Amino acid sequence: MPKSLSPKKLKALHLIISGASHGEVAKQVGVSRQTISHWRNHDTDFISELDALLVNAKHELERTAPIRQSYMYEQLMDLAANGPPDIRLKAVIAYLERCSIEKDESRVAKDLSEEDVLILKAIEERSISSTPPTRLERNRH
Fold it and tell me: At the N or C end, where does the chain have fewer CB atoms within 10 A?
């Protein structure tokens, strides 16, 4: 990492890569949202490091895409089969929008955008740390 990045900037980079909003980053780092915006748009060292971190995150996600894709497919199918009606519909729509079925019926994901990378990383981190609710738990809410 460039030596010119302060501890606050390094913390901001970590939070941004983790999917935090500008407001969340600003609050946790102790600066204004305008400062975060300035760093992202005008600080060349910050921009360069953020770009490098995003490229690395994207490469890592692409490397592990088959595992992630299989996991996401299983989660969507569980929601489509067991979720409340509105969630079932959304799960099916999400699957159809993000995936296509090849002639051999294998699942093939579309290219991941920067936003997809951040969303998938956040979903994975949250899902690994918790077990899915049972049908009884879902019905209580």
Answer: C
| 101 bridge partner residues | 107
Backbone φ/ψ region at 112: left (φ over 0), alpha (ψ -120 to 50), beta = beta
Q: Which domains does the chain have, with CATH numbers?
A: 7-63 (1.10.10), 65-140 (no CATH)
Return the number of other C-beta atoms located less than 10 Å from residue 16's C-beta: 21
Q: How many CB atoms lie within 10 A of CB 25?
A: 23
pLDDT of 133 over the 60 cut: no
Helix 85-98 with 65-82: angle, nearest 10 deg: 150
* Pairwise CA distance, residues 121 & 57, whole Å: 9
How does residue 79 score in pLDDT terms, banded at 50, 70 and 90? confident
